[in-house]
From TrEMBL:
Keywords: NAD, Oxidoreductase. Belongs to the UDP-glucose/GDP-mannose dehydrogenase family. Residues 308-400 form the UDP-glucose/GDP-mannose dehydrogenase C-terminal domain. It holds the Pfam family UDPG_MGDP_dh. Gene3D superfamilies: NAD(P)-binding Rossmann-like Domain (3.40.50.720). One of its GO terms (biological process) is polysaccharide biosynthetic process. It comes from the Bacteria. InterPro entries: 6-PGluconate_DH-like_C_sf (IPR008927), NAD(P)-bd_dom_sf (IPR036291), UDP-Glc/GDP-Man (IPR017476), UDP-Glc/GDP-Man_DH_C (IPR014027), UDP-Glc/GDP-Man_DH_C_sf (IPR036220), UDP-Glc/GDP-Man_DH_dimer (IPR014026), UDP-Glc/GDP-Man_DH_N (IPR001732), UDP_ManNAc/GlcNAc_DH (IPR028359). SUPFAM superfamilies: 6-phosphogluconate dehydrogenase C-terminal domain-like, NAD(P)-binding Rossmann-fold domains, UDP-glucose/GDP-mannose dehydrogenase C-terminal domain. One of its GO terms (molecular function) is oxidoreductase activity, acting on the CH-OH group of donors, NAD or NADP as acceptor. This is Nucleotide sugar dehydrogenase. It comes from Listeria booriae.
Length: 427
């Protein structure tokens, strides 16, 4: 089986290399010359556990090659970005998907299968993608098999979850679904779930929307706790002792290519029916400013002038900054105050300081925005270099809390009344 994968990013590349790992001949296609050159030289352009070994293995076996242009194959997988449009509801931008479809069209032959892995809005397969191929003369389900198979993996565990997670196979016809199951059956050990393409589209979006809405509930609880001087994190811990309660963990916001993006695809298709989803989005979008304001209040309490931000990725132990709430916290701080801001992320090159010792030197407040392993036990040497040994741990991951004079979380923040009494200001 020859697989042509369009898009070699955080999903496309692991998918391509997993197919190669399991015996398929794979051509990986991307518009970035740098990406193509790096991959063919054996270098992985993104951080993902195990990906280097998968690439090395594929190149040694000569069953993976990166290219700027597609070629003929048996299976074509589209795994390109689908960002939000800058319209009223942040609807799905299909520009890259449509570009990918046009790029493979000259290479398609009867009997081929086209799989869309990119996250798309409900009814996109039915209203946009199927008509595109029908206009080109293909009969879907007879001489061209069309499937939506959304990814559902966690960064940092992508290679494991590609194999062991259940996978939705959303065919445009029963024969399309059967073809999709045959293809992913090459390596998927989870259940291959048959569905219509439209059900597959909305299921993927709702998986992430469910999490976004539940995180919004936790983040709203943080604001309630701050108002009432009650530790929200302890409330969550106690509430989750109930056998049917599972409140999510709060944080500085919601980021990444899924949770911060996908709900808008549903909202745009049904704006009047999605009031809860829209409110959840607004709550989560408000958190970076909330965190920035609390950080400045803590800084002012200690008469400090230097803030250190630890972590700019959207989640721990990866280098992905897409829709990162940490970046939004930085932007909010810059807007609210002329405070000096120092940056450090051990997983992102060319951003801020190179070491913890360097970034925490003469700092008055360290704000942890990402749960990298490197931040779970901050070196005492770095802490001792701070002007004020104060940390605001928005992820509650620091193990050696006793090394700080003051340790704040989203549960024990300054209350609004305390901030008012201090006369908190940000200039």
């Amino acid at each position: 089986m020859k697989v042509v994968t369009i898009g070699l990013g955080y999903i496309g590349l692991p998918t391509a290399l997993t197919f190669a790992r399991h015996g398929a001949e794979v051509i990986g296609v991307d518009i970035s010359e740098r990406t193509i050159q790096m991959l063919n030289a054996g270098l992985v352009p993104i951080e993902e556990h195990g990906l280097n070994n998968f690439l090395k293995n594929a190149l040694e076996k000569k069953n993976f090659r990166a290219s700027l242009v597609p070629e003929k194959g048996d299976v074509f997988i589209v795994a390109v970005p689908t960002p939000n449009l800058q319209d009223q509801f942040g609807s799905c931008d299909l520009h890259y998907v449509e570009q990918a479809l046009r790029s493979i069209l000259p290479y398609l032959e009867k009997g081929n299968t086209v799989i869309i892995e990119s996250t798309i809005a409900p009814r996109t397969m039915e209203d946009v993608i199927q008509p595109f191929f029908e206009k080109a003369g293909f009969i879907i389900g007879e001489d061209l098999f069309l499937v939506h198979c959304p990814e559902r993996v966690l960064p940092g565990r992508i290679l494991h979850e590609l194999i062991f997670n259940n996978r939705i196979i959303g065919g445009m016809t029963e024969r399309c679904t059967k073809k999709g199951k045959e293809i992913y059956g090459l390596f998927v050990q989870g259940e291959l779930l048959e569905a219509s393409a439209s059900v597959a589209e909305l299921s993927k979006l709702m998986e992430n929307t469910f999490r976004d809405v539940n995180i919004a509930l936790a983040n709203e609880l943080v604001k309630i706790g701050s108002k009432l001087n009650i530790d929200a994190l302890e409330v969550i811990q106690m509430a989750n002792k109930h056998p049917r309660v599972n409140i999510h963990q709060p944080g500085p916001g919601v980021g990444g290519h899924c949770l911060a993006v996908d709900p808008y695809f549903i909202i745009a298709k049904a704006p009047e029916e999605t009031s809860l989803i829209q409110q959840a989005r607004q709550i989560n979008k408000s958190m970076p400013r909330f965190v920035a304001e609390k950080a400045l209040s803590i800084l002012h309490e200690n008469n400090g002038g230097v803030i250190t931000l630890l972590g700019l990725a959207y989640k721990g132990n990866i280098d992905d900054m897409r829709e990162s709430p940490a970046v939004e916290v930085l932007n909010e701080l810059q807007e609210l105050s002329n405070t000096t801001i120092q940056l450090f992320d051990p997983h992102i090159n060319d951003v801020g300081a190179e070491t913890l010792e360097e970034v925490m030197r003469e700092s008055d407040l360290a704000v942890i925005l990402c749960d990298h392993d490197e931040f779970k036990e901050l070196p005492e040497k770095a802490i001792d270099l701070m002007n004020h040994k104060v940390v605001f741990d928005t992820k509650k991951i620091v193990a050696n809390q006793e090394k700080f004079d003051q340790y704040y979380t989203l549960g024990n923040l300054l209350t609004e009344s305390e901030e008012t009494e201090m006369g908190a200001h940000y200039e």
